[in-house]
């Protein structure tokens, strides 16, 4: 069914959020439901979100994807395999084939609006990013299975976006906050056990995105998608950050302390960390499946020792959005959350 | 026939596009390129020519005039590609220039001549200077040069003198001359520049120029920072084979090193004819040229006194590669040949009546105060005092002595003398003669001073022994006069022709009576800027404009005949005699203001009965720091001071409060100004406190002083100032470039034609303005708040921001001695970084990293409420300029911060 032509996607439109098991997906789905959208989530485990319809399944299962997509006005395609280690095939199945499934299903079902969630790492190969624009995805040159497969996925989204489907590509950068197990909890856990790598000077500037701002940005992107779809493809790639680049060392100290850990002081030279990261990655890969991520990877070492921050002017203009929670306010909120609940998640 | 020489065969001209099918020439369009056959004195020759005439025609544009551009050796017309490109780009239907740039014969892609013999002064198969002029005649005809419209010649190197000679040969047809580095005259007795000697040595000439590409390679290597490989390849393209390089050897052989050289007569004739050239001329010069050094420029200026000159500090022989000469050229052409721009503008009236710089001295020497002190100097526990009558007599003695030595009106005199009594006498003697005092103070450092002195090219250097020895060692120009009488050995070493000491001993003569008092519009002084934002610039002041400054000082601070001031800040101190005020030089190293102690000020106050103290922020800071050592008598001497004036940079109100405690009876003033206009606004300590309650961004420097008019050029999101000026009250609170107009502003920048033009381009309200390069805003009460320099503007996504907007707030934090705010990242989306110099004894960093402790970062962010701060870094000390010891080198800091915050490992700035 084709939804009526509307200038903006407003409640009570029907929205599918794939990958609502992670913090970002869950938070976006919950917020959309609060705002009065009719929200369906799609992932393997139940979302446990009130007022939200769950369709459980895997991106590798076309019938399950079709069932979730049917009857939606718009899709926020967030599901992805996010990790710094693992076998290439596993990343391909979820990130590339999964994205194709979603777009195929949308095409068959006549769903015209898709927010494709990507990552700034799809466009950059480890050099410093200083006030950088959102460049095109570059699977040939980026580093690691995750970035490579997400870059392929983004190219699929772009191709579909230029024929018949309204596509917006959003690349949130380093989302953190209460409930975040990816970055926030790891920093705090490692700081507590004295394993937090603060590399070199700790000075490189890094952009991050506080979770509440990320949710606001996704809601804005969804709502304004029909407007944005009129822009040429390069202007529809939006890196999303707080727009407050900070020295990586200061940020990690801030997050660690907010989580009740002592201020970390460990120092490793960036070159040493990169070398160590490479070795650890290989050992990790060779020793079979692990529950946790390796303690250090080459990718992580690069992330921690070079600048990564972005030009946010276009993003803010296109989304008609500005972050409402500053980094300092976010750290305060994280502190309160950890004190109140005794944990990050 | 020389047996080892394999004859070079003749070869026809070819189009570069046909020869170089694989490697395109970067920067030139194929359609500019064509072959032309021109009749010369020895018959027809084919020339390759780059010509933008057809391209302009294709746009339907009829050129306003034609530029004939002549390259030198061993380049070719490729040298002019930026000029060719600009001629098409900037062309409008009413202002467009066709550029014709031929390759000289035997050069570039033009015809190659047969050379049965190697190049040498007597080898007849090589083109001579005179023939090259004939070649241009033929080309002008063949190209149908439009002589009904303006024709301008442009040259470089050999092409410089050829184009100038051709212009003088056709003075009815050519309307203006322009040249880059060249030489029109080389005195037969002088050695050829060392850089050329190797190439010209008879045994070496053929091998260095023709048989190998050594001469070509060396010349191309002269580009500032090196040429891009593809550009260097383009220059080499016509000269890759030995047979292509005959012309290079021929040109070198045509250098008339001896008086009997075949081209000598024509060259001498052309050099002489240049003196008759009375039409417009423009010189663009790269001073780092090992061949055409500044003395050739000086010779050209001597022949073409009307010439406009832009000297690109830091550029060399290939100035056309090193700098944007097209911009200077087309701006100048437009000014010279398009009358529309020629609206006149004037300065506002001065604060008070202007009198001659000598008038007060003359009057004081005759008045009842004739035996009271005019200048007092304290040094090494000695006080030297000179009365008004004595000073007048010293000035007259020196003026007549200098005159007899040959110093004349308009001569430039570099003064390498420490501020004090002697400098004052010497300066006023120079002013009396109409000589121009060149003041480049030691604060610039030896390198900076050498650059400054070479750019001003003084006719005289007056200095103390050490200064003269340095001048000799570094080969500074100018005849020498020493301050003290020197031993014969030192006379030989320094080349001093006389000494101030002996001239004073000899006394006055009647010579001076015949020397007229200089005209108010003639130049009086060239003061060099501090060079904290690029190479130091020479700022020219006329007698009238210095007189206006004197009038302003009298008017604003009530400095009047009979006043006595302590000179901790040299520029104002030197004006003492013009005001009629006693100037007292305290015991200090004047070039290092931070060496001034409270005791020295007190001693100076006591010795000179001084009631005023002129200093700089660094001096004030040290005076406060050393105030504990004052005796009771000394503290009392400071009580007599009624006026404390600090210039050079803003002073923090907290420091001012401490200064006030030392000088309880004094009004504290911190006027704002710059080398180009020493006094623009004024504010007192109390007014600063009142202003600060309004909590605006930057440093409040007060309101305009009498006779000063302000305008603003608002900054856009990329930090660029608007072209159109606005009145301050129409744009309150808007961050802008500050633009000023006053009778006591600079007369101009010295030998920086385009810089000068750009600084004075505005015609707002019919006034003559000066773009200060400072940024700030005016508040509704008309107070100016300065936020720093235009080139230090930070362009955040929220808009442009001056460093001062952040620094003044951060400096108030207890652990912070001083701070610098810089932008990192691309223009328009920069992140603000604050770099802190901690108060003594504070450790504020995370381990050995420059990263500030999170607690300090938090306080900095809290202080800088209006500007989000991304990172806070800490260094032991912030780099500053030497002169004031107070201008922070933010450019260096920004580049350091950019690297460290990108993750590079770099040592502290």
Automatic annotation (TrEMBL), chain A:
InterPro entries tied to this protein: Epimerase_deHydtase (IPR001509), NAD(P)-bd_dom_sf (IPR036291), NAD(P)-dependent_oxidoreduct (IPR051783)
One GO CC term on file: cytoplasm
GO molecular function list: aldehyde dehydrogenase (NAD+) activity
A Pfam entry, by short name: Epimerase
Domain of life: Bacteria
SUPFAM superfamilies: NAD(P)-binding Rossmann-fold domains (SSF51735)
Domain NAD-dependent epimerase/dehydratase: 15-224
Name recorded for this polypeptide: NAD-dependent epimerase/dehydratase family protein
Taxonomic lineage: Bacteria, Bacillati, Actinomycetota, Actinomycetes, Micrococcales
């Amino acid at each position: 069914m084709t939804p009526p032509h509307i200038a903006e996607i407003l409640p009570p439109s029907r929205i599918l959020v794939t990958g609502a098991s992670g913090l970002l997906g869950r938070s976006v789905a919950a917020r959309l439901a609060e705002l009065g959208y009719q929200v369906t989530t799609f992932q393997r485990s139940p979302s446990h979100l009130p007022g939200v319809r769950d369709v459980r399944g895997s991106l590798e299962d076309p019938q399950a994807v079709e069932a979730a997509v049917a009857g939606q006005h718009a899709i926020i395609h967030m599901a992805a395999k996010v990790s710094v280690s693992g076998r290439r095939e596993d990343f391909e199945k979820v990130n590339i084939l999964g994205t194709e499934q979603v777009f195929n299903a949308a095409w068959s079902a006549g769903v015209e609006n898709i927010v494709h969630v990507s990552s700034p790492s799809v466009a950059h190969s480890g050099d410093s990013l200083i006030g950088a624009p959102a460049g095109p995805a570059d699977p040939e040159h980026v580093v690691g299975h995750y970035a490579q497969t997400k870059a392929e996925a983004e190219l699929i989204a772009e191709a579909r976006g230029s024929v018949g489907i309204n596509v917006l590509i959003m690349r949130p950068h380093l989302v953190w906050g209460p409930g975040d197990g990816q970055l926030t909890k790891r920093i705090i856990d490692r700081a507590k056990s004295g394993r937090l790598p603060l590399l070199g000077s700790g000075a490189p500037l890094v952009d991050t995105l506080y979770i509440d701002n990320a949710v606001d940005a996704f809601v804005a992107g969804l709502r304004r998608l029909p407007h944005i779809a009129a822009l040429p493809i390069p202007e529809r790639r939006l890196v999303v950050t707080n727009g407050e680049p900070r020295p990586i060392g200061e940020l990690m100290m801030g997050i660690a302390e907010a989580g009740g850990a002592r201020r970390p002081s460990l120092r490793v030279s960036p070159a040493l960390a990169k070398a160590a990261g490479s070795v650890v990655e290989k050992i990790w890969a060779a020793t079979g499946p692990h529950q946790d991520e390796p303690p250090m990877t080459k990718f992580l070492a690069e992330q921690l020792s070079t600048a990564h921050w972005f030009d946010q002017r276009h993003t803010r203009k296109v989304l008609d959005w500005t972050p409402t929670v500053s980094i300092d306010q976010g750290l305060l909120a994280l502190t309160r959350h950890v004190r109140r609940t005794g944990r990050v998640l | 026939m020389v047996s080892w020489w394999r004859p070079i065969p003749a070869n026809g001209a070819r189009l570069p596009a046909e020869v170089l099918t694989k490697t395109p020439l970067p920067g030139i369009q194929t359609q500019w390129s064509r072959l032309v056959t021109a009749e010369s004195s020895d018959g027809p020759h084919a020339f390759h020519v780059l010509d933008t005439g057809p391209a302009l025609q294709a746009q339907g544009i009829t050129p306003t005039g034609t530029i004939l551009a002549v390259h030198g050796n061993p380049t070719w017309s490729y040298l002019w590609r930026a000029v060719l490109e600009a001629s098409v780009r900037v062309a409008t239907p009413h202002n467009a220039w066709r550029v014709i740039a031929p390759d000289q014969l035997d050069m570039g892609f033009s015809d190659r001549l047969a050379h049965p013999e190697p190049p040498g002064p007597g080898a007849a198969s090589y083109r001579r200077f005179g023939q090259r002029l004939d070649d241009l005649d033929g080309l002008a005809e063949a190209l149908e040069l439009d002589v009904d419209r303006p024709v301008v010649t442009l040259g470089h190197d050999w092409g410089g003198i050829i184009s100038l000679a051709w212009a003088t040969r056709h003075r009815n047809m050519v309307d203006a001359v322009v040249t880059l580095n060249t030489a029109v005259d080389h005195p037969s007795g002088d050695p050829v520049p060392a850089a050329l000697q190797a190439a010209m040595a008879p045994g070496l000439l053929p091998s260095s120029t023709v048989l190998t590409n050594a001469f070509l390679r060396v010349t191309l290597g002269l580009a500032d920072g090196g040429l891009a490989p593809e550009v260097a390849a383009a220059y080499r393209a016509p000269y890759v084979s030995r047979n292509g390089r005959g012309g290079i050897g021929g040109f070198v052989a045509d250098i008339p090193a001896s008086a009997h050289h075949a081209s000598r007569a024509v060259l001498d004739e052309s050099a002489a004819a240049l003196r008759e050239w009375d039409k417009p001329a423009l010189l663009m010069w790269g001073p780092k040229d090992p061949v055409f050094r500044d003395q050739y420029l000086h010779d050209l200026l001597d022949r073409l006194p009307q010439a406009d000159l832009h000297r690109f500090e830091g550029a060399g022989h290939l100035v056309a590669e090193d700098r944007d000469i097209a911009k200077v050229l087309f701006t100048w052409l437009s000014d010279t040949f398009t009358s529309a721009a020629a609206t006149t503008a004037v300065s506002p009236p001065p604060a008070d009546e202007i009198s001659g710089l000598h008038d007060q001295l003359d009057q004081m020497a005759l008045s009842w105060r004739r035996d009271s002190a005019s200048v007092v100097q304290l040094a090494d526990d000695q006080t030297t005092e000179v009365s008004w009558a004595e000073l007048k007599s010293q000035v007259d003695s020196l003026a007549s002595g200098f005159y007899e030595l040959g110093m004349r009106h308009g001569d430039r005199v570099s003064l390498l003398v420490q501020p004090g009594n002697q400098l004052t006498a010497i300066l006023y003697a120079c002013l009396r003669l109409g000589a121009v005092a060149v003041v480049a103070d030691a604060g610039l450092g030896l390198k900076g001073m050498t650059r400054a002195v070479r750019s001003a090219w003084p006719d005289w250097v007056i200095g103390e022994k050490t200064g003269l020895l340095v001048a000799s060692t570094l080969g500074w120009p100018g005849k020498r006069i020493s301050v003290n009488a020197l031993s014969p050995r030192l006379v030989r070493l320094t080349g001093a022709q006389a000494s101030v000491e002996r001239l004073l001993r000899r006394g006055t003569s009647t010579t001076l009576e015949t020397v007229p008092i200089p005209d108010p519009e003639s130049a009086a002084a060239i003061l060099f800027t501090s060079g904290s934002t690029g190479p130091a610039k020479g700022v020219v002041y006329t007698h009238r404009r210095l007189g206006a400054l004197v009038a302003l000082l009298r008017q604003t601070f009530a400095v009047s005949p009979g006043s006595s001031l302590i000179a901790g800040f040299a520029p104002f101190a030197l004006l003492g005699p013009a005001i009629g005020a006693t100037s007292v030089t305290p015991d200090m190293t004047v070039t290092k203001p931070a060496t001034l102690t409270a005791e020295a000020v007190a001693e100076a106050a006591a010795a000179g009965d001084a009631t005023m103290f002129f200093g700089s922020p660094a001096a004030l800071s040290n005076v406060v720091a050393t105030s504990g050592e004052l005796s009771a008598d000394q503290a009392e001497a400071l009580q007599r001071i009624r006026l404390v004036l600090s210039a050079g940079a803003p002073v923090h109100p907290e420091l001012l409060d401490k200064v006030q405690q030392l000088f309880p009876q004094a009004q504290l003033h911190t006027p704002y100004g710059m080398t180009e206009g020493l006094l623009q606004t004024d504010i007192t300590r109390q007014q600063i406190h009142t202003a600060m309650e309004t909590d605006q961004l930057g440093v409040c420097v007060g309101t305009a002083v009498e006779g000063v008019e302000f305008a603003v050029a608002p900054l856009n999101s990329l930090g660029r100032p608007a072209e159109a000026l606005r009145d301050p009250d129409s744009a309150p609170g808007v961050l802008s470039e500050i633009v000023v107009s006053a009778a006591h502003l600079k007369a101009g920048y010295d030998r920086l034609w385009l810089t000068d033009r750009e600084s004075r381009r505005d015609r707002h309200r019919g006034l003559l303005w000066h773009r200060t390069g400072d940024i700030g805003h005016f508040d509704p009460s008309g107070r100016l708040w300065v936020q720093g320099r235009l080139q230090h503007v930070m362009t955040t996504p929220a808009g442009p921001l001056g460093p001062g907007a952040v620094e003044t707030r951060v400096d108030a934090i207890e652990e912070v001695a001083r701070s610098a705010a810089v932008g990192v990242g691309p223009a328009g989306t920069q992140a603000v970084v604050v770099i802190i110099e901690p108060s003594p004894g504070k450790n504020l960093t995370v381990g050995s990293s420059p990263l500030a402790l999170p607690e300090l970062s938090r306080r900095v962010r809290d202080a800088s409420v209006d500007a989000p701060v991304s990172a806070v870094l800490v260094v032991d000390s912030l780099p500053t300029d030497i002169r004031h010891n107070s201008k922070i080198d933010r450019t260096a800091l920004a580049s350091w911060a950019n690297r460290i915050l990108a993750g590079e490992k770099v040592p502290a700035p």
